[in-house]
Amino acid sequence: MTPSLLLCCDLDRTLIPNGPQPLSDQAMPCLRRLVSRPDVKLAFVTGRSRHLVERAIARWDLPMPDYVAGDVGSTIYDVGPQQTWTPWDTWDLAIGSDWRGRTHADLRAALAGIPDLALQGEDRQSRFKLSYTAPADIDTSSILRALSARLDSLDVAAEVIWSVDETIPVGLVDILPKSATKQGAVEFIRSHLDVPPARTVFAGDSGNDLPVLAGPLKAILVANATSEVRAQARHLAEVAGKSGDLYLAKGGYRGMNGNYAAGVIEGVVHFFPEAEDWIG
Ligand SMILES: [Mg+2]
Fold this sequence. Notes:
By secondary structure, this protein is an alpha/beta fold. The protein has helices at residues 27-35, 50-60, 89-96, 104-110, 140-154, 182-193, 210-213, 227-239, 261-271, 275-279, and strands spanning 5-9, 40-45, 67-70, 75-78, 86-87, 118-119, 130-134, 158-165, 170-177, 200-204, 218-221, 246-248.
């Protein structure tokens, strides 16, 4: 059975209400009813590792997803009805060739010593993801230039993603195979499930969600996103000619505030009015 809807959600400050804004009480029960339908598939698309996703599910009582694209899209798991979390080797093959046989350790050695970049802990690293922190207010262009130069000299096709964790605040730098993006992972899951693009929607809140928010699929920006991200998303979607496929949650649906899961629900009903009945 082809799913009626594939809902792909970022976690931190999109489904997980771990920002300063409040979460409406009804939001999570609504989401739970929506994704409990067998024809609705839920995928988490997140910077978190499997371990940190499992911790978040328990801590925030999130619905169990069908798929998890973790480590900013560099690993995909089929969670399965028994929660076996089977990694998709086909995804590793698809993205692994970008690094031309170079390993995490090779890249780490080549990138050592760049000023202001600090490697994150081992639980934030994975086979195809290097993660660093940097001061949030730094000149990002010089860091990105230094990284690009060293990656070019290794002849690897890598993507460097800059984002800011507004809660701390700290800058986050993720280095991934070029095709191991959130966008690529969403597309891989979508095509594996054979869900039409028009029945697929992504929800996010921050900088590393922007390529998907402004990409070819329907997308939702939750209301708790910063005004800067909102302006960037609107601009990028306009440039890409897909303004109609980007929904900026504003609150008001069923008296909810549009933050986190409330924004996701609001956007899903905007794009798929029939979901109103699914939520009950
Ligand atoms: Mg987020």
